[in-house]
Amino acid sequence: YLYLTDMEISVQDLEINSNASLTVSLAQTPFCKKHGYDPQNPLCAHIIFCGTIVKVNDSEVVLAKKALFSRHPEMESWPKDHNWFFAKFNITNIWVLDYFGGLKIVTPEEYYNVKP
């Protein structure tokens, strides 16, 4: 879940085109440096989530609020006049680059059903 305001330029862009992507890389952790991998090396894996950002409906607000505020309690005290709202990232495509030879495509269903 996301806690957003229309005051953010990225949110204004999302109102025109709700498509978004989020890249998470092992370069954000000590892993790649520890193994001597350049952040651009495919062995320094990254995953790209693609989809749309949408406002949550009224029935989901309670869940979104609990999910975010339990992890980020400061959010609850952010300025009220910013008209914050809850949104979510509806993931439609997932691309994984973790080795040479190109991307692997993972469906959201496969991603959410992985057992650790």
From TrEMBL:
Keyword list, A-Z: Glycoprotein, Secreted, Signal
Primary location group: secreted
Gene3D superfamilies: Electron Transport, Fmn-binding Protein, Chain A
Domain (CREG-like beta-barrel) ranges: 1-113
This protein's GO CC annotations: cytoplasm; endomembrane system; extracellular space
Family the entry assigns: Belongs to the CREG family.
Record's protein name: Protein CREG1
Organism of this sequence: Mesitornis unicolor
